[in-house]
Amino acid sequence: MTQTYLTLNDGHRIPQFGLGVYQINGDDETEKTVTAALKLGYRHIDTAHAYQNERGVGAAIQKSDLSRDDVWITSKLWPSDYGKTQTPVAIDKMLTRLKTDHLDLLLLHQQFGDYVSAWQAMEAAVRDGKVRSIGLSNFDGERLDKILTVAKIKPAVMQVELHPYYQQTALKAKLAPYGTKMESWYPLGHGDSSLINEPVFTELAAKYNKSNVQIILRWHLQSGHIVFPKTTNPKHLRDNFDVFDFALTNDEMAEIVAINQDKRYYNVPLKEAEQRFGSWVPAD
Questions:
Q1: pLDDT (tens digit, 9 = 90+) per residue, 71-91?
Q2: 182 beta partners
């Protein structure tokens, strides 16, 4: 199985398929899962300060026989890390937790707090060689507009809920002039059986001798999305990655595009989300 890559707007090549470690509990379980993924050929690991498992990611990569340059590490700063003085300190702590001298991609995790100063500090980290690419997660509306206005380095990626029922057409169009790539969380629609068992996926799975999930993941790749489904199940880890030996036709891709419902599974109003996330501080 061969990994595919995309070229970001800053010239860096990012592995298009990876492992997300959100809700993998603890560093030991994370290290075990990342180790297994790396052995299968995964070369992109997506973590975050808020996930509380960066140390497990770093340990697995350090103990592997892979060169650091062969593994792409994405992590995210929580709003409590935002600020002119806070963000540089937070980045250094993140590098320590991950046991690396640089991050391949650093994102602002939520659109709350002093995100403008945090973005400017991330730009400085790029200039200092501590971070290679920078981007956003869960930004939209006026707050996204603000970053796009002040940014000297435009976002390389935008990580959002993105799946066949919620294809983010408007956001893609808005970011297209900047060359910003889309990253998907909830790539399988939060595991919704009604989405996974859509007739189009069942029919294509039978045609290509794949599972419905593999068809969905293949659609993401051919749509130009960066995707990292989370699992700790060894069989699912292998099956998820087994999507590089076939290709959907243009007509089949169009069939999947046609099932878009603009349906979100995570739909918390901005004020409620700000109250929920704004005061929480992850442990170091």
A1: 999 999 999 999 999 999 999
A2: 158
* Residue 51 bears catalytic tag: yes
**Residue that is written with structure tokens 């009604």 in the block:** 194
- Eight-class DSSP state of 163: B
DSSP lists the bridge partners of residue 45 as: 19, 73
Catalytic residue among 42, 51, 165, 166: 51
Please indicate, yes or no, whether the overall pTM of this predicted structure exceeds 0.85: yes
Boundaries of domain holding 203: 13-278
Q: How many separate domains does the chain show? A: 1
Q: How many angstroms separate the CA atoms of 138 and 263, rounded?
A: 16
Residue type at position 104: D
CATH number at residue 237: 3.20.20.100
Kindly indicate the confidence band of residue 277, based on its pLDDT and cuts at 50, 70 and 90.
confident
Burial of 67 (0-12, 13-18, 19+ CB in 10 A): exposed
How buried is residue 23: exposed, middle or buried, by Cβ count under 10 Å (0-12/13-18/19+)?
Answer: exposed
